[in-house]
Each structure stands twice: as structure tokens, then as C-alpha cells.
Amino acid sequence: xxxxxxxxxxxxEPWDQQPDPAHGMENTPALPARPPTPIDLIPAAEPxxxxxxxxxxxxxxxxxxxxxxxxxxxxxxxxxTGIAQSGSATxxxxxxxxxxxxxxxxxxxxxxxxxxxxxxxxxxxxVWEESEGGRLQEIPPKKARGKKHDSxxxxxxxxxxxxxxxHQQLCRISGNSLARGEIVVALLQYSLNAYRRGSxxxxxxxxxxxxxxxx
Length: 215
Fold this sequence. Notes:
The chain is mostly helical. The chain has 6 helices and 4 strands, in the order ααβααβααββ.
């Protein structure tokens, strides 16, 4: 004779949706635990940690570009990136090769860095004097200013990984009167022009560190 109080399991329902035996007879045996699914058997992936030892050892030197040289700096940066992408090299390697050539030419006297006054970045000192019987002087009209400078525009920086000795040379060349970013743009453009003329050729070698060679 069949016992009507026995709770039967529906084979088409998941294990975790089966009737609770507690709602039936107290003597009904407990259902077995739900077996693990294939997803439960896959170990959870642990968060990976990127090794930044190389980045710390080969730091990127950052140089602020003066606003008047912004467009020129963008052209130099894009050209270096294009050369790197076409030759399976990094921008740091191309920039290091370019800056090395320019610095070597400075040491050999081939390239000379000269300071030139720029009216856009510095003003002349005004000295007054009294004059008797001088001629009349007209006051020039006020010139209309261009568009107001956008204060929200971010400054442009160039950042490349090269040895600390290169950075020290750049600091020595810039001194107290020239911006380091201005020197970087000038030297990179100097080598870029040599590359365009064909007097500078780049050779690719197996990569062991941030290095570039020129000839």
C-alpha cells in the first residue's frame, strides 16, 4: 500500500527548488545536498599584479612645452610615433636615438644652441628720461587683441624614457634662461629634420632595454 505522506521529488525541478521536507512529515528523510555544477568546479581567478619593476627602473622624464611651441611639439611627437609604429619600435627608443644624435652634435660643436629674445614670452625693461625741447610724439592706437586665451586648455607635456644622464645634459643646456621643454622640442626637431633629409638612419636591433641606435 502506498504511503500518501511521502514527498516525491519532481525530476524536472532544480535541486534547490525541491519541496522542503520540513513541511511534510517529520519522519521524511532529508534530501541529499545539491551536487556541484561544472561552474562550481572552476577555481576563481586571482587578481593579477603587474610587475612595474621595469617602469620604476626606467622612469619617464616629463617636460612642459611652452605654449608658443605647442603646435611644433605636437608635430614632432606625432612624427616620432609614426616612425616607431612603422618600424616595430617604441616611441621611447626613437626619441632616445634622436636626442642622442642632437646631444652628440652639441658636444662636437656641430649644433649650437643660442638664446633669442621672444617678445611673446618676455618684456623689455623701460627706462625713462627727461628731455627739453624734444619733438612731439604720437600715441599709437590700441591694437585689438585676439581671442581670449582659454584658461581651461591643458598644458602640453612631452614624456620619454631615456637615461638620467640625458636628462642631466638637457638641464645643463637649458640653464636658468631656457625652458627644458623648449630644448627637448628643438633637439628632437633637429634630428627629425636630419631623418627627413636622409642623413640620419635608424637600425633596429633585438630589444634588451630602452635603447636606440643611429648612424
